[in-house]
Amino acid sequence: MSVVMPYGDTTGDGMVQLSFTLPMPHSKVAEGSALQLAHKMGMDPALVVHAKPMGPDFTFFVVYGRVNHVVDPSTVVVVERDYPLLTPKEVNAAVKRSLRRRLTVVGACIGTDAHTVGIDAILNIKGFAGEKGLEYYRELKVVNLGAQVSVPQLVDRARAEKADAVLVSQVVTQRDAHLLNTREMSAAFRESYPSDRRPLLIVGGPRFDENMAVELGVDRVFGRGTTPGEVASFIAHRLAGAKVAS
Questions:
Q1: pLDDT for 214-240, tens place per residue?
Q2: Which of 185, 168, 161 is nearest to 103 (CA)?
């Protein structure tokens, strides 16, 4: 594929829309500062199309303008799904055939993260995007520890439950908290388990880079929009040798 440019009004016009906040009260000076920032980022011409005060000391901006940068899709590195997408019936059959017991999954939000929407969407039977969560799979035993679970608590519970897989959701990302927590978690599991007995470690959240699994010390990173079926299929693929075609 050849290089491409952003599309706004006409193909290849390079028009983009950018939003950001400046720590300044709303004024003409603030709007001028927003334009100056846009110009320094390579937007020319640029236009402030929205400016809204956020309290007395901050202003939120939306800027529309042209950039001259091009994108080469052939150089983009992404994590493609390298396992078949299975139905719940196929996951159950693979687990039953391979393990001859229920597969135990322990999930939690670790650190100070209190946002359980992500982990609940994957684990709870109600699921997400029209798919049932892992609690729906009869061959999976799901233990949802909820929010603000410390790493030692997670490790202890995983050992007590004899977890085959550990799922961690991280939504809070200020100061890279999701990365720090994940590295702490993966290090703790490697310290507590022999390498051949460690549970499968899976993390997910809207701000994770799926290419960072090795760097973070986990087996898989899932980004925004991940469905329960994708997670269940990955677990079945890695732990039960599922090879059913999608």
A1: 999 999 999 988 999 999 999 999 998
A2: 161
* pTM exceeds 0.85: no
Residue 52, judged by CB atoms within 10 A of its CB (0-12, 13-18, 19+), counts as exposed
**If DSSP codes are grouped into helix, strand and coil, which group holds residue 145?**
coil
Taking only the tens place, the pLDDT of each residue in 40-85 is: 999 999 999 999 999 999 999 999 999 999 999 999 988 889 999 9
Cis peptide before 194 (omega within 30 of 0): no
Q: Which tokens in the block code for residue 86?
A: 């299975």
Report the candidate in 207, 211, 238 with the shortest Cα–Cα distance to residue 225.
207
The residue annotated as part of the active site, out of 52, 126, 162, 243, is 126
Q: Are strands 59-66 and 46-53 parallel, antiparallel or unpaired?
A: antiparallel
Residue ranges of domains in the chain, CATH in brackets:
1-76 (3.30.30.60), 88-239 (3.40.50.280)
pLDDT at 243: 57
* Confidence at 172, pLDDT banded by 50, 70, 90: confident
User: Which ranges constitute the DSSP H helices of the chain?
Assistant: 28-40, 88-99, 117-123, 151-161, 177-192, 213-216, 228-240
- Please say if 141 is a catalytic residue: no
* Distance in angstroms (rounded) separating the CA atoms of residues 170 and 226: 13
Distances (CA, A) of 26 to 23, 80, 103, 211, 240: 9, 44, 56, 39, 58
Q: Is the dihedral of CA 231, 238, 176, 223 positive or negative?
A: negative
